[in-house]
Every structure is written in C-alpha cells, then in structure tokens.
Input
Amino acid sequence: MFKSIAMLAGVMMLFGATAAHADATIPTKDIAGAKDSALLKRYDGSFIVSYERLAFTDFKVPLSKLERVEGDARDRMNNRIYKPKQELEVEGARTRIAYLLPAERSPLEVLRNYQDVVKAAGGEVLFTCKGEECGGAPDRSSDGGGGNMSLMMYFFHAGQLKDADFSNGKCALASGLDDQRFFSAKIPQAGGDAYVTVQTFVVKDTLYCKAFNERTVALVHVVEPKPREQKMVVVKADEMARNIASTGRVALYGVFFDTNKADLKPESNPTLTEIAGLLKGDPKLAVLIVGHTDNQGAYDYNLDLSRRRAEAVVKALTTSFQADSKRLRAAGVGMLAPAASNDAEDGRAKNRRVEVVKLN
Output
C-alpha cells in the first residue's frame, strides 16, 4: 500500500516538474541579442535559436575524422574520447550560432549553400564529412554520457550551453540527430585567415523537442582574426611582495603559453622580470611556481600540462633572468584550485594562471 502511494507521488512529482517546462516551438524571430556573422550569412527563412560570442578565445578546427583515443580516455561525461589526427588551433573572436531551417530543407542542401558562400568569399574548404565518416557517435549531439563522443562534443558539451533546458536552443543542440553533414573552411581576411565550421543535421526527438523533429539545424562556428586585448596589468615586484606577505601567494596572469603547450611566449617577459625582481629584493625568499589550468581537457593531462608550464617558468627565471634555482620549485595542480567558475570563458580565463607561493 505504502509502496504504491510512494510510486504515485513520484509520478506526480515528475509530472509537475516537467509540466512546468514549455516544449520547443517553431520560432518566428531570432532569440534576443543574436545576429548573423558578417562572414557567413544565414540560409533564407531560418532563425537563430542559440547564440554565443566571445571577444577572444581559442578554438580547434578539425581537419580529419574523429578517431578514438588509445586506452580508455574519457571526457567529462564519461564518453570515450575521439579526436582528429589533424586539427588546427586558432585564436580570435569566436561566434557560435544555431539556426533552425525552414521545413523540408535537407542537411545536404543547407551545407552546400554554406559552402557556396565560403567559396564566393575566396575561401577554401579544408575538410568535409557525413554521418559515420565524421567519426565518433553519428547520432548524438552535445548531450549524453557513457558512450562515444560525438562530433558536436568535440566543440562543447550540453552542460556548457547557456540555453535553458527545454528551450529551442537546447532542443536544437542537445537532442538526437540524423543525417549529419560537416565541413571546416578558411576565409582570407585583412588581418589574417578566418575559420568556419558548419554542421548540419536532422533533429530526432519525440518528447519535449518534438516540434523540431525532422527539421534541419545548422550549427555554425566563426573564428575571426583578432588580437587579444592586453587588459591584464603586469604586477610589479613590490606588489607581489605585499601580496605574499599578507596571503602567502600572488596570482599572475601575465605569463602566456600557446594552447595545450608549455612553451613561454615572449610577452611573458615583463612578468618574469618582476618575479626576478621580487627574488632579488628579498634574498631569503624561496617560492613555489604553481601552474593552474581550467577544467577543459582530461584531469591527468591538465595536471601534467600545469606542471610543465611551471617548470618552463622556473627554467626561464634561472637561465634568462639570473634567478637562483635553489630558491625556486615548480608544481602543477591542474584544475584542482579554481579561482572562479569554469562554466563560462571569463571564469576559465581566471583559472588559467601562474601563482607564486611563499615556500620558506
């Protein structure tokens, strides 16, 4: 008796929770704040259902099919990781747009139209694939765990979307899919090449997103060449000393590396000069140089990357800035000590840092 009542209550709670959410609806206008990229216009009659723009970030462009990584490497959703053997890492202003296409438009037709726009702009298609030829799970979007990564998961996971659950944007990018098509390309610009990826597919859903069922979605990424704004002020040696005296540590954002690499960029030199000045000003001070990462990538990989970056800083300080190696130790903690939430790029940027920690 009690078991039946409990089961009935559970069903009613589930119904109440889901009933509060509105199902997807066919849009008649773009979502607020969204607009086309100047480089890649929309297919006529389509509407923007998901939109995100970052003024500066990094982005990986696949140039070959996704292939399973050796071993049992897993992503954040416990999916087996798939990566292309050939990819291009680029930086710039990144725009991500998801369009819902008019009825009776196939993924191939839409993809061909986007390719025509790229070629008309003097661009070049770098890689193209369809269905299983793209690698990974051909029927999955950005959502789900415990299986194989999909092509869309190469770019982002459902949990990283700003779109609300059951919204048009979430339905477009987190439902099942079919007839997947994809290409990556570059378009020459005055400040360097811009890079675009276009993924088209048919939505497969019969529940909250059923309004989109059998409709084509176009997921477009555009990365425009743009110099990074130098907004991080170089922390001077005396300010480092004050922070270390009061808190035992100081976080530095003026140490720069290429994405997924431990090679110091030349623009790191002003901050390295100040660290050397800190050590010179207090001959008894010994410090840890601690590397930190955001949560993008595998746990063990980030630990190793942060350690190698810290070691690169120590090496530069001792070989190029005459610092005493006996007063320096390197350590990497990966994503273990975030300074901000990793849910958005501005938070992830705060987590990618080097800290100087008092040792003695």
About this structure: The chain has two domains: 26-224, 237-358.
